[in-house]
Amino acid sequence: MKEKDLRRSLSVLPIGTVMKLTSLTARQIRYYEEQGLVSPERNEGNRRMYSLNDIDEILEIKDYLSEGMNISKIKKVYEQRKQDELNNKDTHKNLSDEEARKILSDELLNVGGLNYKDVKGNNSF
DNA sequence: GTTCTCACA
DNA sequence: TGTGAGAA
């Protein structure tokens, strides 16, 4: 059903609503946008208008953040996720939601693994 | 009243 | 990230 998909992609929520829905401050929400994590539309008054998809996006970001991830990490994962979606369309055509989530968490672990750094027993100096 | 941008502690 | 100023 594309209609629902379309509706949930309609940006009609002002930042105030997003604040309540996500329990975040306007500052944070705007900051996430600055980092390219969300892409709200702008109305004629230059006001940010978020879609339900954006809410979901922000909610996830918030979740990852509380799991100890940095904005930079999440940023990377999200950018990669978008590219993966493109790849999936080209190769598998369609993927189950379950599989998509697996891939996402896989990427999450991947980026999270970068946290360990590669300084095991060999120092650079 | 709400949101925007920019700047600073 | 928080907060305040000044404008829309």
Task: Describe the structure in your own words.
The structure is a single chain. The protein has 125 residues and is mainly alpha-helical. It folds into two domains: 1-66, Multidrug-efflux Transporter Regulator, Chain: A, Domain 2; 69-115, no CATH class. The protein has helices spanning 2-8, 15-22, 26-34, 52-66, 71-91, 97-113; strands at 41-42, 48-49. A two-stranded antiparallel sheet has the order 1-2. Strand 1 (41-42) and strand 2 form a beta hairpin. The model is unreliable at 116-125 (pLDDT under 50). It binds a DNA duplex (9 and 8 nucleotides) through residues 14-16, 25-28, 30-31, 45-48.
Unreliable residue runs: 116-125
Instruction: Give me the count of strands.
Output: 2
Biggest β-sheet: count, sense, barrel? 2 strands, antiparallel
Counted by DSSP, the helix tally is 6
SS-based class: mainly alpha
- Within the largest sheet, what's the order of strands? 1-2
Q: Share of helix among residues?
A: 55-70%
- What is Rg? 17 Å
Tell me what the CATH architecture of the largest domain is: Orthogonal Bundle
Mean pLDDT: 78
CATH topology of the largest domain: Multidrug-efflux Transporter Regulator, Chain: A, Domain 2
Distance between the termini: 58 Å
Keywords: DNA-binding, Repressor, Transcription, Transcription regulation
Domain HTH merR-type: 12-80
Organism: Apilactobacillus apisilvae
Protein name: MerR family transcriptional regulator
